[in-house]
Amino acid sequence: MGFERLCMALQGKTSNYDTDVFQPLIKAIASIAKTEYGKNIQQDIAMRVIADHIRTIAFSITDGQLPSNAKAGYVIRRILRRAVRYGYTFLNQKQAFMYELIPVLIDSMGEAYPELIAQKGLIEKVIKEEEESFLRTLETGIRLLDKTFADAKAAGKTEISGKDAFTLYDTFGFPLDLTELILRENGMTVNNEEFDAEMQQQKQRARNAASVETGDWTILKEGTSDFVGYDYTEYETSILRYRQVKQKNQTLYQIVLDNTPFYAESGGQVGDTGVLINEFETIEVIDTKKENNLPIHITKKLPEHLQAPMMACVDTDKRASCAANHSATHLLDEALREVLGEHVEQKGSLVTPDSLRFDFSHFQKVTDEEIRKVEHLVNAKIRANIPLTEHRDIPIEEAKELGAIALFGEKYGDRVRVIQFGSSIEFCGGIHVAATGSIGMVKIISESSVAAGVRRIEAYSGVRVEELLDTIQDTLSDLKALFNNTPDLGTAIRKFIEENSGLKKQIEDYMKEKESSIKERLLRNVQDINGMKVIKLCAPLPIEVVKNIAFQLRGEITENLFFVAGTIDHEKPMLTVMLSDNLVASGLKAGNLVKEAAKLIQGGGGGQPHFATAGGKNIDGLNAAIEKVIELARS
Q1: Secondary structure of 415-483 in the HEC alphabet?
Q2: Which of 123, 152, 449, 460 has the most CB atoms within 10 Å of its CB?
Q3: Residue 209 has pLDDT above 70, yes or no
Q4: How far apart are CA 593 and CA 612, in angstroms?
Q5: Would you place residue 410 in the very low, low, confident or very high pLDDT band (cuts 50, 70, 90)?
Q6: CA 409 to CA 407: how far, in whole Å?
Q7: d(CA 227, CA 235)
Q8: How far is CA 38 from each of CA 9, 41, 395, 447, rounded to the nearest angstrom?
């Protein structure tokens, strides 16, 4: 009957929500919302929804499933957003609040689920960020939905179009079920067929952008494909089957071999490249993928002699670089848990010959000091040259007894492979170095956020670290040369910055004096044309200076001001017009004037009715453009 219903029966209640499973949460929600459970049916429903959903969300995050826009992560995001919307609409919660319920949930369930206690910080951080993110768009979305169904009701309709519902989904992240829920509360429905049609069109656009034509398999002989790449980088083989694939006007071939040393992309590690060689020709393998657990070798052409035996040869340099980076991710994983805490969990990785990327659960930015500690721990293990201990094809229970760490979301069979470097023990099917010393060195080059509660580290190993250090050294040498090879570069740069700031301040003061001087001169040369106080300026001045002068003049001449300037800034002609409010009210528009006159400087522009600018290419046309502005105003 389920845990909640069993509690209801034992406690003599008529609702799951009246049991001690939910009541602590509901009371906490009521306290936050400054209301009382049992007084208002809509508020009661909202509190029950939130109490139920916060459990689902918290347990899912604890199990490693974070909110996202794909698959299971999208289900969690939808559940969370539904709860946020109930709090927003019925409990007047305009700020994030659900994350505050986690301590209450831990009081109730922490003993049975100690993972909640261990990952409390991560759960709170993820939920708070998701709440705040959705609240930023919720108000706008609800306002648009309110207007949509108000317009429909005014037209005598009880249904809104699927196109409007799709816009809410696509632009504001409103799932269709949330839109339907809000509409149902207002006696409305949505045209689901139109929504499905819009969704189908979007999917079709996505398919067209990445369309692939895949031919049928041509089977040369029956048999299975065995991976021998843990032990060999070259192996005699033959083709089992092949097919043609067309994508983005490119023709490729997929080949399945009976035995292959090529590692197929999986577990974050990219696929091997290399060559297939027979006595007649050499075929380049540009990538190796996995499809239905089958290694697929991708080539640009087929061998002419398909039945001939061949040697499959992996690019060993790329393989070695990949292996170093993959082993480095294992050391990084362990070091991060040691420095940041046991809540750290791998959320994804990418291992290439050039670099490694490692995503992990953590609720705040990793500090520079923490990054350095992680690097030092990893590099100490590299210097220790810890040999690889490979537990290949062992029972999964035996792997767990070893303390092997499993990647959440990965499916493991009854028998698994475990990679061990000392105290680093993980389930893994990838390629690794024989000993950590082969990694050379690891240098973290960036740390960033990729999702709520998920951080990303990017790093180099081996030769790439040497290249990075060479670049840093060259940069430092160049900088020192710019400062006469001073031994204390930091002090020299700080002194230069301070001197530069001082000179910049002097220039700003000079420009203010110059602005004031130009303005006073212009005020002495005001012309009266058709009742307008016309002020003309033609000089090589920065546009910011001209703009400042224009607004200062507008502040001093409040009526009939007509200011036009033709200036040169960075060897380009600029046209500026400023008008007083009464001239704008009389029908003059600065934007229209500069747009027309800018043709004489081979340019264009526009702006507001009282102030507009235009840029061009022809400096010689500036004077004519100024006169054109005045002529247009006069007429």
Answers
A1: EEEEEEECCEEEECCCCCCCEHHHHCCEEEEEEEEEECCEEEEEEEECHHHHHHHHHHHHHHHHHHHHC
A2: 123
A3: no
A4: 8
A5: low
A6: 6
A7: 10
A8: 21, 7, 54, 48
Dihedral of the CA atoms 99, 103, 108, 112 (nearest 10)? 90
Residues 103, 481: Cα–Cα separation, whole Å: 58
- Rounded to whole angstroms, the Cα distance separating 498 from 554 reads 36
CA distances from 472 to 332, 476, 479, 593 (A): 23, 6, 11, 53
Q: Residue 153 carries which side chain, given as an amino acid letter?
A: K
Tokens 């494909």 belong to which residue?
A: 225
Residue 518 pairs in a beta bridge with: none
**3 state DSSP class of 238:** coil
Residues 222 and 402: their CA atoms lie apart, in Å, by 39
Among 428, 435, 413, 434, CA closest to 231 = 434
DSSP label at 221? S
User: Can you give the residue ranges of every domain in the chain?
Assistant: 3-157, 213-314, 320-468, 510-634
For the record, the structure tokens of 562 come out as 């007509």
Task: Please give the torsion angle defined by the CA atoms of residues 295, 300, 303 and 307, in that order, rounded to the nearest 10 degrees.
Answer: 30
Which CATH number does 213-314 carry? 2.40.30.130
Average pLDDT, rounded, for the chain: 91
Work out the burial of residue 613: count CB atoms within 10 Å of its CB; fewer than 13 is exposed, 13-18 middle, 19 or more buried. Answer: buried
CATH number among 3.20.20.80, 3.30.980.10, 3.40.50.2300, 3.10.20.30, domain 320-468: 3.30.980.10
Residues 6+ apart with CB under 8 A from 53: 79, 80, 82, 83
pLDDT at position 63 is: 83
Rounded to 10 degrees, the C-alpha dihedral 80/84/90/91 comes to: 120
Summarised one tens digit per residue, pLDDT across range 300-359 is 999 999 999 999 999 999 999 999 999 999 999 999 999 998 888 888 899 999 999 999
**Mapping DSSP to helix (H, G, I), strand (E, B) and coil, where does residue 113 land?**
coil
Enclosing H/E stretch for 629: helix 622-634
The verdict on pTM exceeding 0.70 is no
Q: How many whole angstroms separate alpha carbon 309 and alpha carbon 322?
A: 28
Q: Which of 630, 567, 623 is nearest to 600 (CA)?
A: 623
Nearest CA among 516, 628, 522 for reference residue 575: 628
**408: how many CB neighbours lie within 10 A of its CB?**
12
- Give the tokens for residue 229: 């790449």
DSSP-assigned states of every residue in 320-370: HHHHHHHHHHHHHHHHHHHHH-TT--EEEEEE-SS-EEEEEE-SSPPPHHH
CATH topology of domain 510-634: Diaminopimelate Epimerase; Chain A, domain 1 (3.10.310)
| Tokens 């910055």, located at residue | 497
415: tokens are 């028998």
In 3D space, the residue among 424, 228, 468, 399 whose CA is nearest the CA of residue 326 turns out to be 424
pLDDT, tens only, 574-589: 999 999 999 999 989 9
pLDDT tens column, 521-561: 999 989 998 889 999 999 888 888 899 999 999 999 989 99
Contact residues for 298 (Cβ-Cβ < 8 A; gap 6+): 252, 253, 254, 255, 285, 286, 287, 288, 289
With contact defined as beta carbons under 8 Å apart, do 602 and 573 qualify? no
